[in-house]
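Q: Could you write out the predicted structure for this multi-component system? I'm mainly interested in how the pieces pack against one another.
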Amino acid sequence: MVNYYYDGTFDGLLTSVYESYYGIEPPDKILRCKNLQQSILDKDIDIVTDSEKASKVYEAIHKKISYDALRNVYHAYLSELDEIDTYIYQYLRFGFKKGKSVDLYLTSEEVLKVHSAAKKVRTESHLMLGLLRFRKLNGGLYYAPYSPVYNITALISDHFVRRLSDQFWIIHDTKRNLAAVYNMVECVLTDLPEELQHQSLNTDDCFEDLWKKYFDSICIKDRINPKLQKRNMPARYWKYLVEKQ
Amino acid sequence: MELQKKLEILSAAAKYDVSCSSSGSNRKNTKGGLGNATSCGICHSWADDGRCISLLKILFSNYCVYDCAYCVNRSSNDVPRAAFTPQEVADLTINFYRRNYIEGLFLSSAVTKNANHTMELLYESIRLLREEYKFNGYIHVKAIPGADLALIEATGKLVDRMSVNIELPSEKGLKLLAPQKEKQAILKPMNFISSKIAEKKDEIKVFKKAPLFVPGGQSTQLIVGATKDHDMNILKLSENLYKKYNLKRVYYSAYVPVSKNPLLPDLKTPPLLREHRLYQADWLLRFYGFSADELLDERNPDFDPQLDPKANWAVNNISLFPVEVNRADYEMLLRVPGIGVRSAKKIIMARKVKSLCFEDLKKLGVVLKRARFFITCKGKYFFNYNMEQLLIRQNLINGWETDEKKQEWEQISILSLIPEKPTLQDKLMSITGEI
Ligand code: SF4
């Protein structure tokens, strides 16, 4: 078995695809981090991320397959699911053969896996556009901590740049410690400095109380249905929901 | 009165209005402004009853001069009363919006003093939001029947959606339960709004920058189970509303017993299953090319509680089946029980490159539990014997209900799950109106 290891960046993944065509040996698997129980028969190759090679692959996907394929690949990559990098690789190989019709092969495993991973990411992104909660800190900054299953911060921040364009805000993925910081001019993706990570969130924001009140009184008590509520709004997201505190 | 108390009273009073959708408009943010609307709509939370919360849904006031029997706010009812000021409405909306609690505002009101006075207050709240606060989020407002059309027009220029609630599906019901209201007073503003919307659509074709008028369309709500009307009357009414008034949505609200009035039925619980069937049928009208006449007739004027409207139709029209999955056109695929918009689209795509067998359908995620009775793949049946109409019916009822561990239909409000267009949120589809 030939395993490629790359640094976990999207560029790194695309570089791996590049090397599979022009490098020494095509891989059986592409992985983000060294897996510990590898067999002695495995051959490991470390991929050095090269943004030039990556952008060649990027262009090639766009031109030779389709823009949709590019989107699918990027979204699937953000899912960080097990084995997904290998499926992405197979999907692209298949795609370079079939061109833009690749997405019609809905019964092929690699197409199925990439589509389903991408869909999971898009579904969560859409859900988060609604479930993200900004806390107004005493300095006037709006701070939104959350902990998504997939790495979606880059995907959702654009929406808030358009929407909340006249306020300072930070969207913070506490699981990955990744933040989108917006200063009313531009939005950047960055790690958050240590001291900000543990800021206490004791705000005495009266609108949080008003929101909780509203949340309670809008419910029709004859129709209480916790199952339906959980199906729509899985409990794993409740931690950061003001109304569920 | 404290703001908190007012919010409590006036949101509780608004909660029976089921519309919550924030879709259909894509108003852009302006420079230095706050907010925008996304055409697919976004849910921000789900209340303990499982319904989606997308908008701040409040009454401006619940002081009412009318006395409609089915309504909590009727003047003869002894409930706490309150009224906001336009400033308070704007403050709540802006501050909730900045924290991403809501997509915008849904403002309605009881009739305080008279229709015009009430409409003026609604207009002023919205003007404040749009003009002073530069708020570009979603606004849905209720047009008060009987208010000046000029006032309704001015309001329509500022909002994304407008609605007039019909509430009672027949004139007879109206006479009985809301004798102070007249059918004409309700239909007049609806008619006016729909003609204005049409007018603006033409204008926009000519002048790109023509001002907006209710870009998210018009909707209404019907109460189910407060009168003796059959499902057929209700569905026909909806069909007409979609055709004649170009409505975006008709909402159905299972009547929640709020009064002991002898004119009203004595219900223990709201008729949720009936509401659910109507939503399913409504969905069939809007997205599946069905007409009301196909689904119900004089002999069967009400939906079968045991079988969803599409399966019911298919069983009654069994001579049209089976359909061959590899050849049937999109419209026919949509008519197969168990195949929804998403599955039909996938089948159409996948069969372009490969002739499909039952295994392939499973891979596509098509649920065969019901569909298998109605389709063939490459000429083959799923079963190797011919099924009788009655047998299929039994299988659909028993098989389906037990397999899915009896989904407690009585408790499910499907409304909150139904997106405006059958696109996003794919995974929710299997339990929504898509059947
Ligand atoms: S006019 Fe509206 S608020 Fe007033 S009682 Fe009738 S339905 Fe209720």
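A: Regarding packing and overall arrangement: The longest strand of chain B covers residues 218-224.
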